[in-house]
Amino acid sequence: MKPLRTYYAVEQKAVVVYTHMIEATSKADALRQFEEGQYDDDASMSTDKWYNPTAKRLWAILECPNKGEGWTDVPLEKLKDIDFSNGLSVNWHYNGKCTGERNEHQTHCYECLDAMRTGKRLLTLEEKRYLKDTYYENKDLNTEE
After folding, report:
1. Can you tell me whether residue 142 is helix, strand or coil?
2. How far does Cα 107 stand from its chain's mean position?
3. CB 109 within 8 A of CB 66
4. Model-wide pTM > 0.70
5. Is residue 19 within 8 Å of residue 46, measured between CB atoms?
6. CA gap 34, 40 in Å, rounded
7. How confident is the model at residue 139 (pLDDT cuts 50, 70, 90)?
8. If you write DSSP's letter for every residue of 50-91 in order, what string do you get?
9. Per-residue DSSP letters for 30-55?
């Protein structure tokens, strides 16, 4: 499966030089003052050397197998009492929908994993059609047979 996105950590090391101006009677006196922190903290900074950057792959984002699906905790047995063409009774609701994207180390997206863990079921085609036709934010629900 081709990733939707891939994330990398890119690191680049550099040698940074801090230069402090210290009034002193000798080099030894200047170094002593520096070690004791007896100087103004107004240092100039420059980068002396840059190393080649390195990249390490972190993870990829893949499509969730339930993309376009939604979840509810209403048992299938209760659907026979609901007429979606005449509006809904107060006994039906849906609990969320698939985000469509998952981390490559997971089997499903976090929304689907949570729904499966808590015993919810996938929406039926009739339920998805009702939600898609009624609420704009559900336009991405899969209503193809």
Report:
1. coil
2. 16
3. yes
4. no
5. yes
6. 10
7. confident
8. EPPPEEEEEEEEEE-TTTT-EEE-S-GGGGGG--GGG---TT
9. HHHHHHTT-S-S--EEEEEEEPPPEE
